[in-house]
Amino acid sequence: MSRRMPISNLTVLGVDPGIGRVGYGVVRSHGSTLTLVACGVIETSKRLPVGQRLASIRNELTTLMSTHHPHRIALEKLYFSKNVTTAMTVGEARGAIQLVAADARVPVMEYAPSHVKQAVTGYGNADKRQVQRMVQVLFKLKAAPRSDDAADAVAIAVCGSHRLPL
């Protein structure tokens, strides 16, 4: 298996989109070394109207952008969902994320879930636990990120840091 080297001095904000939970991970590359800067989850309440939930996602991501100054955003592509309502709301969240990136003039790179899993675990059909474990190993963390949304976002950022420059 051939792996691409991280691009030097690049900060990538990885985002695992959702309406209730948006995972984020900030990864910085220095030569061939990757450093996990931050990761977590933006949560929105089911009790709020969708517009307010999207505004909350926008506000939190704008704060992350101004704090970490990423060179690019790595975003997981929307995959086919059996639940049309869920797919539509995730699509709306992706739109809010794209808007934040456009406002900040930060390019967005999109990756299929299988490419993200391949980049981190070496296996495109890895499960959530395998991704969490590999994030732990790659960054020498004492424990894997609790949230699989945060772990997925870190994996997306890793994938984005290994792709060719824009």
Structural commentary:
- With 166 residues, the protein is an alpha/beta fold.
- It is 45% helix and 22% strand.
- The protein has helices at 50-68, 84-104, 113-121, 128-138, 148-161, and strands at residues 10-16, 21-30, 33-43, 72-76, 108-111.
- Strands 3-2-1-4-5 form a five-stranded mixed beta sheet.
- Helix 2 links the parallel strand 4 and strand 5.
- The two termini are 24 Å apart.
Note the main attributes of this structure:
alpha/beta, globular, 166 residues, 5 helices
Task: Briefly say what this structure is.
With 166 residues, the chain is of the alpha/beta class. Helices cover 45% and strands 22% of the residues. The protein has helices at 50-68, 84-104, 113-121, 128-138, 148-161, and strands at 10-16, 21-30, 33-43, 72-76, 108-111.
Largest sheet: number of strands, sense, barrel closure: 5 strands, mixed
CA distance, first residue to last residue: 24 Å
Please count the beta strands (DSSP E, at least 2 residues each).
5
Q: Write down the Rg.
A: 15 Å
SSE order in H/E notation?
EEEHEHEHHH
